[in-house]
Amino acid sequence: MHELSIAVAVVEQVERAGRERGRPVVSLTLRIGELAGVVPEALDFSFGLAAEGTALAGARLLIETVEARAHCDGCGREAPTGMPPVLWCAGCGATVTLLSGRELEIARVTWGEEPRDARGPSDGSRAASDGSGTRDEEASHVPHR
Fold first, then answer.
1. What is the distance between the alpha carbons of residues 139 and 17, in angstroms, rounded to a whole number?
2. What is the DSSP letter of 124?
3. Contact predicate 138/107, CB 8 Å
4. 56-113 pLDDT, tens per residue?
5. Rounded distance, CA 93 to CA 84, Å?
């Protein structure tokens, strides 16, 4: 199950980026391509394990799926590849170039406004929130390799 190693790498990257903030992570959005070979349910489970005891403990993992699309090298047509992917053009039969579908990127991190020290228990538990006290930040896209 390589989803655990992906989850650990994501948690480490976000923790590194957030050390100066000293605030907990409320949610984390990943963009994952259809062809990335990642099982979303397994990644979600693994993320919960990897985040325990970190600034991401209790954070929600949100996954945006990126459709696999290709461009025909012969006729210029652009179309979804489908699953499993068809890597030749349905129109002319030429080979295609993959445009999207292999992404594995940190797209967005939502940080809590409250410093980690003032948050209360360090066990990752948090009170229900009405959405205030958080701030979204677009992360630079950091592909997993």
1. 9
2. S
3. yes
4. 999 999 999 999 999 999 999 999 999 999 999 999 999 999 999 999 999 999 998 8
5. 17
DSSP H helices, 2-55, are: 3-18, 40-51
Query: Which amino acid is present at 56?
Result: L
d(CA 106, CA 137): 11
Are β-strands 25-33 and 60-66 bridged in parallel, bridged antiparallel, or unpaired? parallel
Question: Which of 114-122's residues contact partners 24+ apart within 8 Å by CB, and which partners?
Answer: 114/23, 114/24, 115/22, 115/23, 116/22, 116/23, 116/24, 116/55, 117/22, 119/24
